[in-house]
Amino acid sequence: MCRLFGFRSSMDVGVHHSLVLAENALAMQSQKHPDGWGIGYYEADFPILRRSASSAFVDRDFRQMARFVRSPTVIAHIRAATVGRIAIENAHPFQLGRWIFAHNGTVQNFDQIEAEVLAGIDPDLRIHIAGNTDSERMFHLFLSFLRRAGVEYHEQAPGNLAADVLGQTVRWLKQLAEKKGCPPPILNFLVTDGRTMAASRLGRDLLFSTQKRFCGKMEECGKWQQGAELPCMNPLRQSVINHILIASEPISADDVWEQVDEGEILSIDAHFKFHRHRILKESHQELSERYAPFAMRV
C-alpha cells in the first residue's frame, strides 16, 4: 500500500520535520513504500507539484524539497505500487487545476469496474489522465462529481462542499465494487484546493492531529506571546482550529494523534472550521468487522 500526509495551517510552515526529521517521518516510512514519492503544496494559492518514481528514503531531491517547502497547505505521499507500474506518472499526489489528491489503498479487481469508472468521468477531464493507476482515475471521478455540484477543477470549493463530494465519490465506488462482486475497496483519500482539505477513511488506518505536546516553532507563530499558551497546544474543544495534520501513521510524538473512524470523513474549510461526519450508513463497528479480512494494516 501507500502512506499519505496532509497539513493545513493558518500560517506558512515548513514540513521538513514531518517529512524527514521526525522519528517516524515519511522518509523513514518509505523504506517499506519505495515505489515513488510526491509533494504538493501552494504558493499564493497556486498549486506546485514535485514527484519521482524513486524511494524517498534514498532520493536526495525528496530531502531538498522537504527542506525548501514552506506553505499553509501540503500533501505528501509515498507509494507501494499495486495497480499501475512504477513510474513518475503513477506517483501521488495528482494535480489538476487548483486540486491536489492522494490515495492510500486500492480497489482489488479494478479491471472489473474500470470501464464504469471511466464512463463516470467527464470526457474533457478523462483526457488529463496520464498514468494507469486506479487512484488517478478516482481523482478525476471526484473532479467530475465536483463539477456536477457546481465547482470546476480550476475553482475553489465553498464551505464544506469538497467533503460532501468526496463522500459521494467513496459511496459510489463502494457500491460499484459491491455490485461487481469485488472485495471491499480501500479508499483513504486526501484532497485539497489549497484552502479546504478533506480526508476519508475506508479500509485503512487514518489519523489526525490538531493539538501539539510541544511546538518548536513558537517564535515563528503570530499567535504566540511570552508566557501564554498556544491555541494549538490545547485540546480540540471547539470547531475552529489553527492547524491539522492527517497521516497514515503517527509522524511525531510532538503531536497528539487521534483515529479517524472507519467510514468517516473529516475536513477543514477555508475559515478553519473543523468537521467530522459519517459517509456510510454502516456503523464504525460494522465496517471494521467487514473490512477486517481484507485490510491488512501494514
CATH topology: Glutamine Phosphoribosylpyrophosphate, subunit 1, domain 1
Strand content: 25-35%
CATH class: Alpha Beta
Question: Percent range for helical residues?
Answer: 10-25%
CATH architecture, by name, is 4-Layer Sandwich
Strand order of the largest sheet: 3-2-4-1-10-9-11
Number of strands: 13
* Low-pLDDT windows of residues: 294-298
CATH superfamily (homologous) name: Aminohydrolase, N-terminal nucleophile (Ntn) domain
N- and C-termini, Cα separation: 8 Å
Q: Main β-sheet: number of strands, strand sense, barrel status?
A: 7 strands, antiparallel
The gyration radius over C-alpha positions equals 18 Å
Put simply, the count of helices is: 8
- SSE-based structural type: alpha+beta
Q: Outline, from the CA principal axes? A: globular
What oligomeric assembly is this protein in? Answer: single chain
* H-E order: EHHEEHEEEHHHHEEEEEEEH
Task: Explain what this protein looks like in three dimensions.
- Strand 5 (94-96) and strand 6 form a beta hairpin.
- Helices cover 24% and strands 27% of the residues.
- It is globular and about 45 Å long.
- By secondary structure, it is an alpha+beta fold.
- The chain has one domain (7-291): 4-Layer Sandwich (Glutamine Phosphoribosylpyrophosphate, subunit 1, domain 1).
- It has a seven-stranded antiparallel beta sheet.
- Residues 294-298 have low confidence and may be disordered.
